[in-house]
User: What shape does this take?
Amino acid sequence: MIMREPDSIAAERERHRRALAPLRLPRFAQRQGARPLVISLEGANGVGKTTLCALLSRRLGARSCLGTDKAWFSDSFKTRMIRDAEWFSSAMFFLSGCFEQMRALRGSPGPLVIMDRSLWSTLAVHGAENAGRLKALLAMLHPVAVQIEVPDLTLVLEASFEVCQSRIARKSGTARLLDGLTATPAFHAREKEFYHWLARRRSEVLFLDANEAAPETLAERASVLIRQKCGGAS
Assistant: This one.
């Protein structure tokens, strides 16, 4: 059964929609040289991105990777940059890792890569915190965006706040700690609205309902979308 969104959350989404409406996305680089098609998985913490990434990698025989180059990660430093750093330092850190990951894929073997998050996640999180942050980040990106490649197809997983929280509760350690930092219904609603704002500006951004579908069922639906949009490259 689909539950009706509470009036307060619907109002929060509408306020955020109006705040994002005037913002302009920069023109990013055209696909450069030989590299695999990049399919990024996006959505709120706990929505099932990492599980789907692994399933799609096996199902399609594709390489999988994080959206941020692995050289950027250690548990202690990741915690510092997500939880403790000034917001703009955190944003620059993760965006730089996303840019480097896309660069590193140039010339990589194989036709397809499944990516767990991408630069869109960083913009989504900071945009959900405050539309002014997103405005500042977009202004910073405008002069350099023509040199930045973005994923060829982005699949945004959507699930209710309650479903995401139940999945976060099954995690442990650093993953559970960090996923819980933005665990409020209002933040969840604003993050969801960012992805709809993005989809209105990027035709390759599509949505998948991850509320009730079993992981394998969701992987099958995602595989169909990938084959339709990418011409069977896998």
